Fold Periplasmic aromatic aldehyde oxidoreductase, FAD binding protein subunit YagS.
Amino acid sequence: MRAFSLDRAGDTDEALRLASGQPPADAQIRASTQYIAGGTTLLDFMKLDVMRPERLIDISVLRQEHGRIEPYG
C-alpha cells in the first residue's frame, strides 16, 4: 500500500475545510483526497493499489449529525 496522510474531522465544517483547495479529479481513482467512514472498502482498494489517494479524511464522527435515516412524507 502506498503512503498516505490521515486527518480526522471533528465536524462538517472541518471536513470541508480539510478537503478544500484540492483540484477536482478527472476520475475517482486519481483523486488526491478521499473521505472515509465506517463500512467503506476504500482501504481494501488501496491495499490492492486500485485506489491511490494521497490523503484520507475520516468523517466517521459525522454519523451522529448526518447518519440518520428518516421516513419521507
Remarks:
- The first strand starts at residue 5 and ends at 8.
- Helices lie at 12-19, 42-47, 63-66.
